[in-house]
Amino acid sequence: MRLHYLWIASAAALATAGVRADSFPVVETTIADIEAAYQAGTATPKDVVQAYLHRINQFDRTDSPQPLTAGGDQQLQPLNSYMRVNPHALRDASKLNPNAGGRLFGIPVIVKDNIATSDMPATAGSVALGGSKPDSDATVARKLRAAGAIILGKGTLTEFANFIAFGMPTGYSSQLRFQLFQLGGDLAKVGYGFNSYDPRIDPRTTAPFNDGRPVLQTGGSSSGPGIAVGDNLATVGVGTETSGSILSPSGQNMIVGIKPTLGLVSRYGIVPITAGQDTAGPVARTVTDAAKLLGVLAGFDPNDSATQPCLTPGKCLSDYTPFLNPNALAGAHIAVPKNPYWTSFGLGANRTALMNAAIAKMTALGATFEDCDLPDQGALNAFNSCLSESDTAAREAAGPTGTAPCTSVLGFGFKRDLNTYLANPNFGPGVSASSSTIPVRTIHTLHDVVQFNADHPEVALKYGQDIAKGS
Q1: Which residues are catalytic?
Q2: Dihedral, CA atoms, 99, 102, 105, 111, nearest 10 degrees?
Q3: Which domain does 337 fall in, by range?
């Protein structure tokens, strides 16, 4: 049970939201539920957006970073899934033309804050990009709007998609920390998203756990979309993944995530790690909704050469729902890499039970499973260990760059592709966050990011920037 469902909304919260609590029942709602309400005339896009804004006001970001309940270690924190709620969401909902239709007509969507939109900053979770306001939408954002979706806001994320520092908890970013600090939060403790299944600060008093991080991981780096969709703060979301950044928060928040094959979905207008592995993809409460969203996102984009195969008929589809076949597993032969995932990676008793139950269900539907060992198990273990802050030997072995061998390809791509993104006049140059003590700065390159952070370590470098410096 989510602890959130034990909360009682106060009259003050309702007044602050300025909307009716019963304007539309968003809990566990799906795209089909919203479409049915529109067709029946029982709700409008404005009603639906109002209902989500009300829930966001209750459980996510309010005008204060203070706990939502009292009680020592049992204090429940705001979820912090939104870096920014779209100030034009109600206007956008009111302007939708019902005659225009669209496959996502009136569906509220949260997009990760490394995806450019022309109406909100695109920060990638970094104070070095905290004031960046793109002139254009990323292709995925443009497709969402063209399909009638309402971009409800920008989702928090692990800073730079978890490619800036070793040991950074998922869901943390310096930009979120900076924003909460400006609202009166404790700079030593704020900056994290929280999982709605247990939205408490880790009560342990020893390092590194006593820094304000959540007791239950959010997963990352698409933390905000995962949290928001999991707690009914948006109908669906769009995350990005290089390695695990959609699947991880989807698993942690008990929802569905899809990492598309590279080239199925355009990367244009997304703050990158590396063009060789990055892609955007859907997060949703159900497989059906994930399939519907994928069909909107997929397709050729002249601004992204990786999508060229989509010009070949049948390579990229606009509708994946025909594949939602309950009999599709009949005759399927599926390998299960219990070694290393059940063993050295340590799923734990609860997750092992869930995996075994899923295997049993799929077996009953006609699938055959076979245990297997991954042929590159050693490489996977090495990759896992050298991303650990504690594995100094692996990093020292990398030589003067300071980057472990497993991250050398990503590091090269990060520098090349971030510089390319910032050089695009539609999205760059970047602009830093600013305050009375932090003058605004223009950011043209990764080197500029590193230098800005080094000049403002009190807000930018809680966990350092070893990965960025080694790229």
Answers
A1: 112, 221, 245
A2: -150
A3: 325-385
